[in-house]
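Running co-folding for manganese (II) ion.
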Amino acid sequence: MAFTLSDLPYDYNALEVSIDARTMEIHHTKHHNTYITNLNNAIADTEHTYKSLEELIAKAGSISPAVRNNGGGHWNHSFFWGIMTGDSMGKPEGVLADDINATFGSLDEMKTKFQTAGATQFGSGWAWLTVSTAGKLEISSTPNQDNPLMDIANTKGTPILALDVWEHAYYLRYQNLRPAYMQAWWDVVNWNKVSELYLAAK
Ligand code: MN
């Protein structure tokens, strides 16, 4: 079963306050789409053809680099589009807000730790907020297209928030200024969605 590129849940210019429309369009139609094409090519006519994306990436340590990288790329981008919105409420509420405060001290301290994870990820990768199997909120980063669902991740868990820190995600507007991109990105986080994911994972 071949994987396909889904439409974004908003227009390319919806996140303009933080991410320009041209970057969104290239990121979705070129970068994300290429991961899907390469994933489909890598699994065609193999034992992996009928596995779900989650099944494939869970065994990242023992599958080919092409499946690990492109399967991760497909999963990560699909997730990333879903946790952003042009209509952000600006901050979490309810149980998620309480648990962020209890775990990190404050929302600002969580953001600082998350941005540090993204800024110190050398080269390309992702920053993550996850829920561990013990139900604990944790921040981590992964290289390339790895993610916390993979068996090879240093910090495993269920992702509830993710930020793409590859240069292709920000270079047109922010050039080399990854920290400026990360700071601006909070304005498009879909906290309703993140809360849903948190309650489901907890
Ligand atoms: Mn990307």
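Result summary
The first helix runs from residue 21 to 43.
The radius of gyration is 16 Å.
Job closed.
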